[in-house]
Amino acid sequence: MDFDSQMKKRVAEIKSVIENYLPDTEGYQSTLLEAMNYSMLVGGKKLRPLLMQQTFVMFGGTSNAIRPFMAAIEMIHTHSLVHDDLPALDNDDYRRGKKTTHAVYGPAMAILAGDALLNLAYETAAKGFTEAPGDPNVARALAILAQKTGEYGMLGGQSVDVEYAGRPLSDEQLSFIYGLKTGALIEASMMIGAVLAGAPEEEVEKVERAARCIGLAFQIQDDILDVTGDEEELGKPVNSDEKNQKTTYVSVHGLDAAREDVGKYSKEVIRLLGELPYENEFLNELVLNLIHRRV
Questions:
Q1: What per-residue confidence (pLDDT) applies to 237?
Q2: Percent of the chain scored above 70 by pLDDT?
Q3: Region 100-122 average pLDDT
Q4: According to the model, what pLDDT value does residue 21 have?
Q5: Do the beta carbons of residue 185 and residue 154 sit within 8 Å?
Q6: How far apart are CA 28 and CA 252, in angstroms?
Q7: pLDDT in tens, 213-264
Q8: 222 by DSSP, 3-state: which?
Q9: Most Cβ neighbours (<10 Å): which of 6, 64, 209, 210?
Q10: For residue 45, what is the DSSP state?
């Protein structure tokens, strides 16, 4: 089976897993529940749960606890997108080729839907304790999920991104934002996959370093696509960084240097993964496709 066929098959499986953890749209709060499900089902490649699953597979994992964590990481990622698109932040009306949550349900309901998805993520991840009773790796995975999401992870990076909008950034500040806002959830995904599979600490640390490089390369490529991409193909507005007066890797270093550094980080990822005593050819190809994507 070629990579594209494998990708479609695995993404379909992951979507099925995620749908099992979404709420029924009933009761007085049904509009909130509809907004949550709309946000989760509107599309997307499900890359974070896929990275988690494939890292888990690489380390020979067998625990069913991986399933709620795969759903939880996508809920957290989707929560961040719902809030990113709000008028107070990026003010985007389209995401993944569809109307954003606030454009459909209004800003107030979108805020609540994002909050509810973040809460639901931890409710869902906690089901790992039921899936794997007595497994200490579940608690460790939950701690990683919380840390990489919070003030020293994704939300910390987002806060600096918002605070410094319209202001020049140093390389250090830009790397900090990218490492946390984008990289932290990718790190969490791969680390949790390794942890739940029982990987030793030194190998989890190597996975974390590889994931950090993936996050940096992914965000730099995102900056490149914001300048060179096609809005219809991307499913979201282009030149939004310029519109929002954001300093990006491209605006600081230029397109050629940005492309060169994407290549540098991708080589480092493959080097680090290659040092592990395990193989997952699909994971390697997934990482390269993710980093060098055109949409």
A1: 54
A2: 94
A3: 97
A4: 98
A5: yes
A6: 49
A7: 999 999 999 999 988 866 555 555 555 665 556 789 998 899 999 999 999 9
A8: helix
A9: 210
A10: -
251: burial class by Cβ within 10 Å (0-12, 13-18, 19+)?
middle
| Token digits of residue 133 | 């009773």
- Say what the alpha-carbon torsion angle 232, 234, 237, 240 is, to the nearest 10 degrees: -150
Rounded CA gap, 101 and 92, in Å?
Answer: 10
CB 49 within 8 A of CB 189: yes
Residue-level pLDDT at 184: 97
What pTM value is reported for the model? 0.92
Query: Which ranges in 96-245 belong to alpha helices (H)?
Result: 101-105, 107-125, 128-131, 136-149, 154-163, 171-177, 183-196, 201-228, 231-234, 240-243
The closest of 10, 158, 193 to 79, measured between CA atoms, is 158
50 Cβ neighbours under 8 A, 6+ residues apart = 10, 11, 14, 286
State the DSSP H helix or E strand holding residue 94, giving kind and residue range, or none if neither: strand 94-95
Beta bridge partners of 94: 99
* CA-wise closest residue to 53 among 171, 170, 180, 189: 189
Rounded to whole angstroms, the Cα distance separating 106 from 255 reads 36
Those residues whose C-beta lies under 8 Å from the C-beta of residue 257, and which sit 6 or more positions away, are none
